[in-house]
Task: inverse folding
């Protein structure tokens, strides 16, 4: 049996295999006029080609729940009903090409208002089309603008925006919503003591720092149907506390295990186990740097877990599933290089995925 190509049923939703397209910003949405934040023909081609290439689930890139929550002015958004029709075209194109359409809903917090990577990245000044950023505390990501400390009203507004975006995602035809709680963006910046020094009910203890994440999950679940899955992407570690040369109090795998249990009590069906990006940090140079944490998280928390990070070899992906280290794999850069990675993997492993169609003609 090739576990990688077995379906996975979560609630009432069946994902045809365990090779999933990881959310990856393309920074290709129009940033001006009525089409701001809306998917265009580029997005249709980009995602539909990976769906036709055999992935079971394609999770559309970080999509802003509010305009100020975008990483860059070229991000997708779902903060307004006018954005629904363009997302409906994208979700339909993915579904018609053979994959389940999912979407990652995100707020970039103190890492918002950035230039596109191929133009150097880095913050865009307010007088050059950027916008003021906000976060749990007035602590900047090194080299970036200092965020305004969010008020309780700001926090409530962001939580409500997540629910509104999920409602729009449902109207657009997405089948899976992933809450972006990783990579130093807003929710992760609440979780980590390196970026959160609040003294109210959203700072201090682990329970307080996790509060906004659980509120977002509750808010999403309040509008998202019972039979459709919600995922939570987290950074399993900041890669700081375990570094002997550093060792500051930071977000750790042990914290992630506790959070994952809480998240599943609040309606998250699967934890997508990424890592890092809250602060610059030393990350181990090994291919399993991140998938090891996924395996530990799965074993210790009992939640369903997807592994991600430097997975390029189909045999490695299959082994992650066969060994029980993960329930699915998210593939990122390998899928940018090869839209048919999933179909090629099925062929290499001798599996016949349901979604290998015309592929047989090519061999
Ligand atoms: C161009 C690019 C854009 C990305 N955008 C996102 C994103 O929108 N949301 C997210 O959670 N991760 C994002 N990531 C991280 C990927 O989803 C993935 O976790 C990471 O690249 C590691 O997997 P890989 O080694 O298979 O590429 C991005 C990565 C790349 C290379």
Result:
């Amino acid at each position: 049996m090739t576990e990688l190509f077995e379906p996975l049923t979560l609630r009432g939703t069946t994902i045809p295999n365990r090779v999933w397209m990881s959310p990856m910003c393309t920074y290709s949405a129009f940033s001006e006029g009525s089409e701001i934040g809306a998917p265009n023909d580029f997005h249709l081609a980009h995602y539909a080609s990976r769906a036709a290439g055999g992935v079971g689930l394609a999770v559309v890139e970080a999509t802003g729940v509010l305009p100020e929550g975008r990483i860059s002015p070229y991000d997708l958004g779902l903060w307004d009903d006018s954005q629904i029709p363009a997302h409906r075209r994208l979700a339909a194109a993915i579904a018609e090409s053979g994959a389940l359409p999912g979407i990652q809903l995100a707020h970039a917090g103190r890492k918002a208002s950035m230039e596109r990577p191929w133009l150097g990245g880095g913050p865009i000044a307010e007088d050059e089309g950027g916008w003021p950023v906000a976060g749990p505390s007035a602590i900047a990501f090194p080299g970036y603008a200092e965020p305004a400390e969010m008020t309780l009203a700001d926090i409530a507004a962001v939580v409500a925006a997540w629910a509104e975006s999920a409602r729009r995602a449902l109207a657009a035809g997405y089948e899976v919503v992933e809450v972006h709680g990783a990579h130093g963006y807003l929710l992760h910046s609440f979780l980590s003591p390196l970026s959160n020094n609040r003294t109210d009910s959203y700072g201090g203890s682990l329970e307080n720092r996790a509060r906004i994440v659980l509120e977002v999950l509750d808010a999403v679940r309040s509008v998202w149907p019972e039979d459709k899955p919600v995922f939570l992407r987290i950074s399993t570690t900041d890669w700081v506390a375990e570094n002997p040369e550093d060792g500051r109090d930071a977000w750790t795998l042990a914290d992630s295990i506790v959070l994952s249990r809480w998240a599943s009590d609040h309606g998250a069906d699967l934890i997508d186990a990424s890592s890092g990006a809250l602060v610059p940090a030393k990350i181990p140079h090994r291919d399993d740097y991140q998938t090891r944490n996924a395996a530990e998280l799965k074993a210790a928390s009992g939640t369903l877990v997807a592994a991600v990070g430097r997975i390029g070899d189909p045999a490695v992906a299959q082994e992650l599933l066969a060994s029980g280290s993960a329930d699915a794999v998210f593939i990122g850069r390998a899928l940018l290089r090869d839209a048919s990675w999933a179909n090629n993997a099925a062929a290499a492993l001798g599996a016949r995925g349901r979604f290998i169609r015309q592929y047989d003609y090519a061999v």
User: Anything to note?
Assistant: The pocket of flavin mononucleotide is lined by residues 22-25, 61-62, 104, 180, 182-183, 233, 274, 308-311, 331-334 (CB under 6 Å). The CA atoms of residues 231 and 322 lie 22 Å apart.
